[in-house]
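Table S7 (text form). Paired inputs.
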Amino acid sequence: MIITLVGVFLSLSPRFIQPLQSLASRIVGPIANRVQRLQERDVSWSVERFLTDYESTFRRLLSNRRNMLLAFFSNGGDWSCSLVLLWGILAALGRVPSVWIVVIAMAVGEIVEMIPIPIPGMLGVYETSITATLVAFKIPGPVSASAAVLLRLITSVFDIPSTGYAAYRYGYQVLTNLSKSS
């Protein structure tokens, strides 16, 4: 909620955005220039290199049991945290459902989220599936919808910075390796 309020405040007060804009351009500018130079030189490297990196990384993951277990438990931990979070949100909203109802709602939400629908981040689809599942288990619609939206907001607060950092690190590493090889 704080991030949303800050976003609304900044969008209503453009004079506060100017320093942020210049800071962002100073940070992103050199990276954008490097990417542009690499793209002018050769564009074909990106798809081929990505597929090669993906395949080699996946093969390394499968060949190392420790990494496989780590990935499995990491994914299981993420899912478990989402379950506990949804159950806690519903409890805070005055409805304490069975843990199995929350497990089923999250499973339906995850399955629907995997359907390749061209909607960025499956915004709205995931929430609707969780809401519909909770309503099917006799949890009132407003409570179900509020819980689903709050779950999305809370998980996005943690997901966006961590995935953004990972994408930045990977992208920076690729750009550094490419500039060294040329």
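Next pair, protein 2 of 2.
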Amino acid sequence: MANVVVVIGPGQIGQAIARRVGVGKHVLLADLRAENADAAAEVLGNAGYEASVATVDASSRDDVHALVETATSLGEVTGLIHAAGVSPTQASPETILKVDLYGTALVLEEFGNVIARGGSGVVISSQSGHRLPPLTVEQSRALATTPVEELLSLPFLQPGQVTDSLHAYQLSKRGNSLRVMAEAVRWGRRGARVNTISPGIVMTPLARDELGGPRGAGYRRMIEGSAAGRAGTPDEVGAVGALLMGPDGGFITGSDFLMDGGVTAAYWYGDLAEVRTQR
């Protein structure tokens, strides 16, 4: 039986990690749009990887469970890369909470039931989670541990409390890192690990949507005001993903890795303080 690495959302970041951890393994590429999975499979296949495709709505339990069934029919699931999501410019608050928050919790639960001993997972979150003001201990615990099907019923996630897409996105991404921390306990009982990466502005089609959208000026200001002074690349995220999923990351689980060129540091303590007022 093959070792299987599942990539949900095989865009630039998902592919960059898969290139590093998928050598000699079967890479299962799953996306909401079949054409995206097919395009990724062609690129990886031409580079010598064994790849197959599936379609999945990451916010549908039936779809995610079917993907688990497909993956386990191919072999042992030793890797999970969850890089699917929608950005504030792309969707309503309700959709963002359903896809980015609920969907991630669902994927972690379903794949945590089958992840192989020695396996590892990475969830792609966002720097936005680090720009949400502190939550209460009770709110953090609720995001981390509320049963998946009850998650969207939490009082502080209701429409009257979450009124714009950016707030929904920040809550979702904070929720992702908290959920991964809690899931790391459960995955650990299977001898597996799971972590979160919170990239800053990385040049992908999603980032280009944001740069061209209503918050584009703020994004450009963040890049200019950061220590790095530039956007990141998918390959840089891929390098961190490879560390977390590989043997060198064997002592790392339940952790969140912020990699944003110093944007969040400048946001809280530097020259980007004015961006905080632009939300």
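Strands lie at 2-8, 26-31, 50-55, 75-82, 120-124, 193-199, 256-259.
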